[in-house]
Write a structure and sequence with these properties.
By secondary structure, this protein is an alpha+beta fold. 43% of the residues lie in helices and 18% in strands. The protein has six helices and five strands. Strands 1-2-3 form a three-stranded mixed beta sheet.
Length: 153
C-alpha cells in the first residue's frame, strides 16, 4: 500500500494558517473541525506544521517562564512561536511501511504529503492505522472466501 491510497480514503480538506496568525485562531480552527493539526503556509509554500503537541509545549513553556509579570494570554502568542518549522514530509508513492517507520522514529503523528512544492494532503497516524486495518480485513475476507469450508465465527 502507498501513501496515496491512504489519502484516497480520508477527508481531503486541508486547514491552513499563516505564521503570523494568533495561536488562539489556530486552536479554534482545530477544535471546530475536530482535527489534530493544521499546516502553516506562507507565500503559498509549506512553512511548518502546528499540532496539539506544539500548542501544549508553548503553553507549558510560557507557564514556566513567569519570570517577569503575568503569563501572556494565548491570543498574544503567534503560530510562528509554536509551529514545527521543518516537519518531515512524504511523497504520495512512498510505501506505508516506510511512512509508519518515519512516524515512529520521528515521534510524528501528522505528516504532510507533498508533490514537489505542493502539499496534497496530511496523513495522520490514525489514517495509517485505519487504512492498514481495512486492508487486512479485506485480505482476511478474500482468503476466507477462497477457502470454501471456513468455519463460521
Amino acid at each position: 500500500m502507498e501513501v496515496k491510497e491512504v489519502l484516497q480514503v480520508k477527508d481531503s480538506a486541508l486547514f491552513a494558517v499563516h505564521p503570523d496568525s494568533p495561536l488562539s485562531d489556530a486552536v479554534i480552527m482545530m477544535s471546530d473541525n475536530d482535527i489534530g493539526s493544521v499546516i502553516v503556509m506562507e507565500d503559498g509554500k509549506l512553512a511548518g506544521m502546528l499540532t496539539f503537541r506544539e500548542v501544549l509545549s508553548i503553553l507549558a513553556k510560557r507557564q514556566t517562564e513567569r519570570c517577569v509579570g503575568p503569563t501572556p494570554p494565548i491570543a498574544e502568542i503567534l503560530v510562528l512561536e509554536a509551529m514545527h518549522r521543518n516537519p518531515p514530509t512524504v511523497e504520495p508513492n512512498m510505501d506505508v511501511d516506510e511512512l509508519r517507520r518515519l512516524m515512529v522514529d520521528s515521534h510524528t503523528r501528522y505528516v504532510p504529503v507533498m508533490e514537489g512544492d505542493t502539499i496534497i494532503g496530511i496523513v495522520s497516524f490514525h489514517d495509517v492505522a485505519k487504512a492498514v486495518l481495512e486492508e487486512r480485513n479485506l485480505e482476511n475476507k478474500l482468503l476466507k472466501a477462497y477457502i470454501k469450508d471456513w468455519p463460521a465465527p
